[in-house]
Write a structure and sequence with these properties.
This is GNAT family N-acetyltransferase. This protein has 205 residues and is α+β, with helices and mostly antiparallel strands. It contains 6 helices and 7 strands; from the N terminus they run E-H-H-H-E-E-H-E-H-E-H-E-E.
Length: 205
């Protein structure tokens, strides 16, 4: 991943010109982005721990489709590129609780493994926006697209003086986020053979 110039700088590479925040999206676009996330998280430890193995990738795609359409788009920020090959979702600290109908649908998609989601993680400081997810299609991984998405949403967060928090269960991700200004402030060990989860925070610059 590279340290490309932030959006808004006239010297930024042409490929970063397409990074944008979606303010509206068609069902087809939502389905495409959900499929990207399903591919990106197909072998992610946390996903494997919280989603049943039966038709897992289809379950993950359906879960992300519901979150993107009913949570991220109306309440938060969805950032993507012109090819819809990557997506990042940022949620506000005052995001509304999910309606019960949506909770029931998500629970059914997670299956029995979804009970592990009841494990509580440390709460981010008040006023913190949450990086709910970021994923890049496997064919585009290693091209700098993930960095470009993060730089765009963080540039916007800085402009509004917003701290941003996240959780990751992949130790290999820590250096990537540290390069972007995040620091680890808590580490949690999940029960029943679960993995470690690192809570990270980035204050506005």
């Amino acid at each position: 991943m590279d340290n490309s110039t932030l959006p808004g700088n006239p010297e930024k590479p042409r490929r970063l010109m397409s990074i944008r925040r979606m303010t509206e999206a068609s069902d087809a676009e939502i389905t495409t982005l959900a499929a990207v996330l399903a591919e990106a998280f197909a072998d992610y430890a946390w996903t494997n721990w919280t989603v049943d193995s039966d038709r897992r990738e289809a379950r993950i795609a359906a879960i992300h489709r519901l979150y993107l359409k009913h949570v991220a788009l109306p309440q938060g920020e969805i950032w993507t590129d012109g090819d819809l090959a990557g997506v990042a979702v940022l949620l506000p600290p005052d995001a509304a609780e999910l309606p019960q109908e949506l909770v029931d649908k998500l629970s059914a998609l997670h299956g029995e493994a979804g009970r592990r989601l009841q494990t509580e993680l440390p709460q981010q400081p008040d006023g913190t926006w949450t990086l709910a997810t970021i994923g890049v299609a496997p064919s585009k991984q290693g091209t700098g697209l993930g960095t470009a998405l993060m730089e765009a949403l963080l540039h916007n967060a800085d402009a509004h003086s917003r701290p941003v928090g996240l959780e990751t269960s992949a130790e290999s991700n820590l250096e990537f986020y540290r390069r972007l200004g995040f620091v680890v402030w808590a580490v949690s060990e999940m029960p029943s053979g679960g993995q470690l989860v690192w809570s990270m925070l980035r204050n506005p610059r």
